[in-house]
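User: Continuing from earlier, I have the next pair ready.

Assistant: Great, send them over.

User: Here they are, in order.

Assistant: Folding the first of the pair now:
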Amino acid sequence: MPPPPPPPPTAPPPPEFQKKPLSQNAQKTLDKLRTRARRRPDWSEMMAEVEQGKKLRHVECNDRSRPILTCKSMTKVKGQFIFETEKANAHNVLLQQIQQGIRLKPTKCNDRSLRKFRRQMTIEEQIQKSESRANFAEPPPEEEEDEMDDIDKLRDDLQSTKQMLALELRNKEAHERENKRLLARIANLEAELERERWSITGEPVTRTSTVSAIDESLVQSLKSEAESAQKQASLLEKKYQDTAEQLDKAKTEIEEQKRKIALLEKQISQGSRPQIQWQHFSYEDDDEEDDYAIQQRSFRRQVFAKTTHNPLPNVCVQHRAKPIPHSNFPLKAFL
């Protein structure tokens, strides 16, 4: 028998486990955790450390054995809680279809960028066209122009005409402005030439006016308009001055009325009353008296009765009373 094969070689010894070098941030964190805390933790620092951490993966949980949110519209079917919006009724099915979307049917379009749709030829027309093509001597029949072609051509013509008219108007306005500028320049040059002739010869030179009669009438009309505008401006200025004076007078009157009103309000707030000149008082009055005069007379009689402690009798209006001296009536006690 042949000798047995030699045993397979043994596996090499495993390499020594080498730790990866720690980074500076990891080393600082380890040192911080190993050392003993010497101060109270600060919530702001802790929240900053938490916020700096890595974002966790999103975890989904479809467990409905114990729902967190409980409401009356939940029902339990086959060990699962189902909400009212998840029930298989027509309304919820429609909402789910709207949310998920429905795949549309694929459509094909064989559009070859045709300018317009033409009418299809009948069999007789196709036969006639083939016969005409067979006969090379005869020219092919011209196709009837479509109405849409006429409309398109007309639209293009109108558009081009509109653009040309706009360009022509702009050119005309530019020419008019240039002509006005040149006319003004010619007038200035003529004036300078006249001044030069006057300075050389010392005699006035008749000016050769190149301005037409239309321009002269235009100048005269402009002068008349300027004079009328100046007169109107002077009238408006005069009216403005009169109005300003009236406004100043009204303002002064308003200020005077405000001052009087403030003085009266101050007297009313302080409870002051106007002094009564008793020496000129009389119960007799030839004119008809109003209610205010009657009230004033009754007030005076009451004051007089309080001071003398003898109420006055009901004296007739026609009765005349003697004037009371000012020294016998203590006004300061009742003001």
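And the other member of the pair:
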Amino acid sequence: MKSLRLLLAGWMVPLLGVVLLAVGFLAYRTADRLLVERQGAARDLEALRRDERVKERLEQLDKELLDQAQNLARLMQFQLDWGKFRFRDLHILGMLGVAMADKGFVMIPGWTAPVGRGPVAMEFFRRAVPEIRFNDQELQHHLDDIAEYFQVDTTWGSVFRSASLGMEEMAINKQAFFPDQVLHHEFDSTSLANGVAVRRVRLKAPAGRVPFFAFSRRGPGGFEGRPPGRPPAEPGRGEPPPPDRPRGEAAPRSLVFIQCAYPLSKLEPALELIRGEYETRVEELESASRRTRLALAWQLAGLGAATFALAIGGTVALVGWSLRPLQRLSEAVSRISERDFTLRVDPADFPSEVYPVCIRLRETLVQLERAFLREKHATADISHELRTPLASMLTTLDLALRRPRAAAEYKSFLEDCRMAAGHMRGIVERLITLARLDSGSDPVRPQPTNASALAEECAQIVRPVAKARDITLDVDAGAPCWLLADPDKLREVICNLLHNAVQYNKPAGSIRLRVAQGQDTVLIEVADTGIGIPANQLDLIFERFHRVDPSRHGDGSSAGLGLSIVKGYVTLMGGAIAVESEPGRGATFRLHLPVKLGLENPGRALA
């Protein structure tokens, strides 16, 4: 036989080792997680510093690009050369063409107006626009490599591109680029048409000095001022330059759009240096974290080993001390015998863990003693119940054998013997039924069953017995109540309850059998006006061999087994049974059996 002390110690020591190992592992994992979080925070901080440095470098580049764009706006010059156009000749030629054209009088105002826009005039104004110029020496002095690509656009269509752009163009929507602001700049990263990734600034600014209809003298026949034949400006159609304004300077200020771009590939070495410093710092942090985790693992291992060694001795002593109450309880149980079921210990003297065991053991012993006494009484009752019909049968046979008799007399004796044998058979069958319920060898065979019709059938079976005792049996079945159940077992349940109601009823009493359909259950209720059941026996009536009134043993066919069979069958079919009673006022048994929803047309299934 194994020792409980050694068994507990044998389990506790490995369990303690596992617990210590788990605690050490959890402690290590927790510390490791904290270290990882700290390392992650440090890495994030380094990444933030790296991003800040990259951002500062880009902001520095943006500032330099903006400075270059502003320098371009300041160094920009405009030149308008009217001498290369033969304005007067074209104008006169257009006038002659209009005069000879069909309905030319309609077109004459357009050519004679100060701001005429005829076909020739449109071509003229399209080409006669100020051109953008830069002084090469000023560009070399004020610009550096930051403005490697730049482009200048104007509202009147002139464009100037750096030599590095060639024929490529940096697109800009001049109408949509902050039309409500005169001065504005914006940074972005984009790619040129040749695929070069650049950082770009777009600057919108007013033009500094724009010649507006200014003419330069180009040798003989040249002219200055407004074109020949053009009248002075009308009020509201543009004012002439003031007298103190230098000739050739524009009256209104127009807008220019300057774009400066720098290849990001040239910025990459500086950014790579920043990233390299970041990677170096991250590697240093990871190396320090690994050293810290290794030192922590060794410390936890040493501490766990020392704790485990101390815990082994404490576990052995603790197990021995904890088993003392069980030893006392074992000694008390060993004193119990078949004649004395008393547990001679006080549960209050035991620890709280053993206290429920003592209480439950004492209750079990009380129930065992009660069952033992009930079995003794039942054995006597069954012996008496079997002896009575057996003695009657033997007496009848003795009478029949005393002398020769007629066939009718022998038949009467045999019928009496058959009735006595039937009583004995009923008792034996009930005992067999209970044995099958205990072993689980009595399966349920469910099928659609009309509980109302079955109740009427059971009432017809029991009604002659009730009538013989002057007891009225009424059935309130109502509409058909269908459920999925074993009809044979349900018939046995209802008949047992009705027989029980007849057996324990008063003379001229009544029995009411009611069947009702619930939402999920079918209710079967048997109420009688009998002697009732005392409150202290309501929990005992379903126990085997128990009788409320032993003097009312009836015909001896049940021997206190009927309600036990009812309880077993109802439980087997998934239902529940309850009883209400007052002494002297009868009893009411209620059965609730599940309908087993899903049977849409039980009548058809039953047919």
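Worth noting for the second one:
The domain at 443-606 is CATH 3.30.565.10 (Heat Shock Protein 90). Residues 210-252, 597-607 have pLDDT under 50 and may be disordered.
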